Structure formats: C-alpha cells, structure tokens
Amino acid sequence: MRILLLALLLACRLPATAQPSTAQLRETASDFLRQGDASNAILVLSRAIQQEPRSMALLTDLTYAYYLQRDFARAIETMKPLLDRDDAEERTYQIAGNVYRSIQETSACDRMYRKAIKRFPQSGALHSEYGEVLMDQRRLTDAIEYWEKGIQADPGYQGNYYHAARYWLTGRDMLRGILYAEIYVNMDSYSARTPEIKALLLEGYKNFFVETVEAGRQAAPRKRSAFEEAFRTTLAKQATLATLGLDVDRLVMIRTRFILDWYAGEGRRFPHRLLDQHRQLLQEGLFEAYNHWLFGAAADVLRYQNWVGLHADLMGEYTAFQRNRVFRMPQGQYYATE
To answer: What's the predicted TM-score (pTM) here?
Structure first.
C-alpha cells in the first residue's frame, strides 16, 4: 500500500516538474514567429500566459502574433489594457502603433504615440514611427519636427535620419539633407533603402552647388545654426570645381578639399563623427574608395563596376574597414539648433 501511494504521489508531481518554464515557452513562440507561424506561436504563448497571466512581455508577444495573423480584433483586445499599465514597454507601444495603423485608427494612433513619447522621450524608434503616422496624414511639418527630435534624443537610431534626409532633400534644405543622408547610409549600409538614399545624396550635392552658383537661391528657408553656416561656407568654396559637372572623381576632389579646410578651421569648434570618419579614411588612403562606394552606382552603374574591377584591392580594403566598424552618431553632436 505504501509503495502504491508513493507511486501515485510521484505520478502527480511529474507533470509539474516536467512543465517548460515561461522563458522556454516564450523562446519556442519566438521561433514560430521567426518562421512565420503565428498560429503555433499563439498556442504556445497562451500556455505561457496561463503561468504568468500579467507578464507584459508575453502579452506584448501575443499582441504581435495576433497582428501578424491579421486578427486585429484580438490584437486590440489584448493590447488595450497594456497601454495603461505602468510597466508598459517601448515595444508594446510600437506594436500598438502597427495595429492602429493597419486598421486606420488615426485618432487613437495619435493619442497612443503622444503618450508613448511622453513616457519614453529618448526613444528614436517611437519618434520615427510617429513621424511616419503624421506623414501618412500629410502633416509633413509636424512629421519633420518629430524626426528632428528623434535625432536629437537618440542619435544612434537610424530611422529618423532616413526620413529627415528624404524630407530635406526634396527641395527644402540641401545642406541638412546631405548630412542626414550620408549619416544614414553609414548606419544602414546594406538595406533596401540604402540605394534610394545614395541617389538622393548625389542629387543633393548637385542641387547644393546649383543653389550656390546661382546667387540668391541658397538663402535658407530658416535661420541656420552656426555649424550649418560654417559647413555651408566651407563647402561652397569648392563651387568652381562643381561648375564643370559633378561625377564621382570631382566629388572626391571637392570632399577632400572640404575636409582639409574643415579641420584647418571649424573642425576644432564642431566635433562631428561623420567628418571624423572622412578624415580617418583620408589618412588611411581609403577615402576615394569610400566615395565610389557612396556615389558610384547612383552616378553610373557600369562605370562603378569598371572602377571596382580595376581597384579590387583598394575596394577590398575599404569593405574590410566598413564591415569591422559600427558607425553611430554620439550624443552632443546635434547642431541643427544653437
């Protein structure tokens, strides 16, 4: 009898000891989501939530799974209570934004993002996404305000540079646009967006010098900061070279002279991560290769391919340099305002 009772006790205890932890269940669900299997992820997450019914991370994951499954009704039902909780995560608001945008709940989406940014004022991602929401509503002046605030608050987040570059390079401000565009392609060098921004950057340089040569057109639509004025003045010194037309070789000359002039003068006053990298590449003999990588395909794909074929070793050195460094803008180098 005692042996039978012991066996029964062990049988009752086995399921509890063998039960996966919530961390294990969450990892399993994440694997399903990576495979695009939202249904199985929901099954696993539901089991995990039975163990930890108030887990913000699990409930946020479940909302995301419903979103991927396009079950927006359940996504909203799961999501709404989370947004008012004190432990709501930045990611919770991002997923909520995706849900609201999918069902075109404009007012709710606006309120949610304003609340989220107030709660996470240093989040570059939330600023970037809310700017996209405002852009969709054709509120471009409001959108650029959030993208600029995102760059200032979180300079290491790339999305705000992408949107701000596109905004400024559509005839609004070539100077700010070319800076943001080049920062973006250094932060996000191989995404689907990169060729678009490289092409805009090349056109931005052309338009900058058109406006510089044609007196009066370079007048700023707003007051420039001291950094922007110094940058404009230093770059405009090379306008004579640009009058013969801009190709990659001429851009290498212009940008080389700019860096030499900058660090002989204003560079001491305005530290800047991108311009520091330009100087480093010049010192290491890689600046020409960098400029071909930056502008070559946008200017002329065949000529770029030919150049790479003729300079394979140099391009290999630059590629190794690029792949072995992480480019991030630091705090304290936002010069758009005084």
So the answer is: 0.89
